[in-house]
Amino acid sequence: MDNVRSAIIGGTGVYDPGILSEKKYLDVDTPYGIVREVCVGKYNDCSVAFISRHRIGHKTPPHLINYRANIWALKKMGVEKVLATNAVGSTTESMRPGDFVIVDDLVDLTKSRKGTFFEGVGAGGVAHFDMTDPYCPSIREILTESAKKLGIRYHERGVVAVTEGPRFETATEIRDFQHRGFKLVNMTSAPEVFLAREAAMCYASVCMVTNFCTGVSKKPLREEEVFEVMQSNGSKIIDIFLGAVNKMYPITGSCLCRSKDEPIKNILNLAYHN
Description:
By secondary structure, the protein is α/β, with parallel strands linked by helices. It has one domain: Rossmann fold (3-Layer(aba) Sandwich), CATH 3.40.50.1580. It has helices spanning 67-76, 137-150, 171-180, 192-198, 223-245, 262-273; strands at residues 6-10, 21-30, 33-43, 46-52, 81-90, 100-102, 105-108, 154-155, 159-162, 184-186, 202-212. Strands 1, 2, 3, 4, 5, 6, 7, 8, 9, 10 and 11 form an eleven-stranded mixed β-sheet that branches. Helix 2 crosses helix 5. The radius of gyration is 18 Å and the shape is globular.
């Protein structure tokens, strides 16, 4: 299997890294199921893996995504740094549809998702991970510079409230989020970012604001609106990523994302040698 160090996880509207060359598609076996159609290709001599989070054609809703299999597959392939895309709703008029946000924190409000690789004795034991910086600050800095050079309207930080989905939030829920200072809402950031930390990978996300949330918008939210905005701007996110890929090795500055690699190595050994 190709040993790739960088990966892109594409969300809504980002289903194919068309700019990659020498592309091939792999099915990667994991203890949580097979991850199909993992694309591996080249960009400026860098090997990059690409996973469509919802699968091509947007076949998988957010609450049914196999997050553990996706992250495990990338770890198995040798990935060290992950760039993710997320469609987000905005609870504030200062972050408008079409804006990009290089988020720096999140609140997990999901209810039923498996959010860890560590499930006790026989499944890697117990491990605890610091989440002071859920999103790698070093990569966020590189992404910010890339967006700035492209002249794209972006925000350097933002807190995402992650809901279960697949329904959109109620107006009262959005008012609660506004009161708590959550400016962005989506359905896919968790547990993906936490699993990446457990897997000792640097992880950062560029979010696209696709809509104003319920109660902020003057009209009912349409699902088609989210897809339309994301699909029309998805190529800009890939442009931001491609401006960052070659600058991630060697990366300047320091982070703690990969400081605790041993626990996940133990799980990998447990899964493939028992």
